[in-house]
């Protein structure tokens, strides 16, 4: 197993993680910003008001982007299984 194989595997893993986590995080960030602006404009200082819309938005994002996220994870897994001979050192 070469150092380049490890670097490639780790970079692919990090890219898959970032690509899979971006849609729900972006949706939560956008909804959180909208709720924060709404709270500022209306002078409502309730801390728990921001949680429910963000949770709902993240769940909707997971439902909507679920096939995309699952496809990325399955593609990464298939790539790792296909290249397994480069990662396992024979005894």
**Helicity, in percent?**
over 70%
Number of strands: 0
- Unreliable stretches (pLDDT < 50, length at least 5) are none
Distance between the termini: 13 Å
Structural class: mainly alpha
**Major β-sheet, in short?**
none
Mean pLDDT: 90
Strand content: under 5%
Question: Order of SSEs, N→C?
Answer: HHH
Q: Figure out the total of helices.
A: 3
Radius of gyration in whole Å, from Cα? Answer: 20 Å
Task: State the shape.
Answer: elongated
Number of domains: 1
Structure characterization notes:
By secondary structure, this protein is an all-alpha fold. The protein is built from three helices and no strands. It has one domain. Helix 1 packs antiparallel against helix 2.
List the helices and strands and how they pair.
Elements: H1 3-42, H2 51-82, H3 84-87
Helix pairs in contact: 1-2
How is this structure best summarized?
The chain has 91 residues and is mostly helical. Helices cover 84% and strands 0% of the residues.
């Amino acid at each position: 197993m070469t150092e380049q194989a490890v670097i490639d595997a780790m970079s692919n893993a990090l890219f898959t993680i970032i690509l899979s986590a971006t849609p729900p995080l972006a949706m939560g960030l956008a909804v959180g910003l909208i709720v924060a602006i709404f709270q500022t404009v209306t002078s409502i200082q309730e801390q728990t008001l921001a949680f429910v819309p963000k949770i709902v938005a993240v769940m909707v994002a997971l439902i909507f982007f679920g096939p995309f996220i699952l496809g990325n994870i399955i593609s990464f897994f298939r790539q790792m299984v296909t290249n397994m001979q480069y990662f396992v050192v024979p005894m």
